[in-house]
Amino acid sequence: MLIRFNVKNFMIFSARNDGKSEEFSMLAGKARKKKDHVFDDGNIKLLKFAAIYGANASGKSSFVRAMGVMKHTVLSNNLPAGYSSMYCKNDSENKRKPSYFEVEIKLKDRYYTYGFEVLLSEGQFISEWLVELKNDEEKVIFSRDILNGETEIFKDFENISEELRSRLTIYAEDVQKDPTTLFLPIMNRNKDNLYVEDSPIYIYRAVYEWFAKNLEIIYPQYPISYYGYLIKADNDKVKEVCRLLGAFGTGITDCQMLKVNIEDVFGNMPPEEIRRVKIAIEKVSQEIKDKHPEEVSMIIKGSNGMFFILISEGEKIEFRTVKFVHNDKSELFNMNEESDGTQRLFDLIEILLAAEDKVYVIDELDRCLHPSLTYRFVKEYLALAKNRNVQLVVTTHESRLMDFDLLRQDEIWMINKSENGAADIYSLDEYNIRFDKKVDKAYLEGRYGGIPLFSTLFPVEEA
Fold it and tell me: How far lies 137's CA from each of 97, 185, 353, in Å?
């Protein structure tokens, strides 16, 4: 689970003179109501939901993108395209200052912080660290000072064999002075034989897999789900999806997963798109030959609907589509015949069915959704999250969510652009607010920041 995320000198988040980074936290605050919104293991209390508000261009999307850049960099061991200009440009000196990315996470019953500093203008990493946090102590798993070529590995751990410590030292020395690479992804590349789950070294794999499997970063132009929960679903799961869609007032009364022919998939598809899909199928088929994974799936959205391609061992390929029933059960509707709002809900449904320990970060939750539907979705999520260790962090403009009948005070965050053009992020928990106050009205009046400040829209030209 996510505890904290810190960022500095990235896009709208400045390189502060006091050395501090901007911090977003899922730690429960002073609020005492709605305790079922909180995960509590006796040592730590974590929120399962947070809504981040702010004016357009205030930094909400930059916050989501910062988390996405960190995930991309860890998993690919490469900075994303355009990285050299991603530093905060409110001060020309920031080009020569490092950017800072750090997450604090809970894995099983332990707590870790992982992060790195990088000089984005030159694409060079400055430092990297992975530390276990325990009883106000810090146990260094590894720490790299790349500029000075200094590395510490398992400094505070005594139960590492000399053979294993020697191997780790060799791996670390290979990249000790290399500013173009991170150690964590290096330790997860072609080293499967190193990892035994009860070994201390397994933490390298566990933290890497948290980024790969537990953290989902969703941008407005991307679908939230690849619908894996439907592809392998039994009839009961498909019926549950339909029930949820119908409960949101879409008019859908049933849905069916149907087998189709390849002609149905490629029928109206442009030749170039057909070629790309066939190449992708061949690539996945080859991966199955090489690694023997379980059944692999692909999704295609086209003008004639949405199709699922299942590829299993032996290069067996099966095509399916999902169709919807409204009041007239004799008619079936393709995905592309449903409204944008219904398609958006279909994407969001996975969050309501999420497994344990998932962290979803969604930019613009309310895109394509009616305000009442956004409210209903968050309410449904919070009800289901009572019995699941999942977390949902969203950016939104929907002020109706600022309702103390729905959310706790510490679940509401603001991003506000300061006079120098840099962004500050802070929780509504910093304010003393009565529980009976109309907080959405106060927000729209600018009481807590995070709203647009208008100059004259249509200046009158002097004669």
Answer: 29, 26, 37
Distance CA 364, CA 212 (A): 22
Is residue 305 domain-shared with residue 380, that is, in the same domain?
Answer: no
Query: Which pLDDT tens digit goes with each residue over 244-275?
Result: 888 888 888 888 888 888 888 887 777 887 78
Q: Pairing between strand 254-260 and 215-218?
A: unpaired
Q: Which of 289, 321, 354 is the last residue of a domain?
A: 354
CA distances to 141, 152, 187, 442 from 164, in Å: 13, 14, 13, 58
- Six-digit token string for 224: 């939230």
Distances (CA, A) of 384 to 65, 205, 334, 390: 27, 30, 28, 10
Instruction: Yes or no: say if 203 and 159 are a contact pair by the CB < 8 Å rule.
Output: no
CA distance 353 to 237: 9
Query: Residue 425's beta-bridge partner residues?
Result: 415
Do strands 296-302 and 305-312 pair parallel, antiparallel, or not at all (unpaired)?
Answer: antiparallel
* Nearest CA among 116, 156, 114 for reference residue 139: 156
Q: How far apart are CA 292 and CA 281, in angstroms?
A: 15
Q: Which domain holds residue 433?
A: 1-222+355-463
Query: Which DSSP helix (H) or strand (E) runs through 376?
Result: helix 371-385
> In terms of domains, do 27 and 141 share one?
yes
The rounded distance, in Å, linking the Cα atoms of 7 and 120 is: 13
Pairing mode, strands 391-395 and 359-362? parallel
Token pair, residue 334, equals 């393709």
Query: Of the residues 337, 354, 371, which one is the last residue of a structural domain?
Result: 354
- Rounded Cα distance between 183 and 34, Å, is 41
Number of domains observed in the structure of the chain: 2
Mean pLDDT calculated for residue range 145-150: 89
The whole-model pTM stands at 0.84
Instruction: List, for residues 415-433, the tens digit of each pLDDT value.
Output: 887 777 778 888 888 766 5
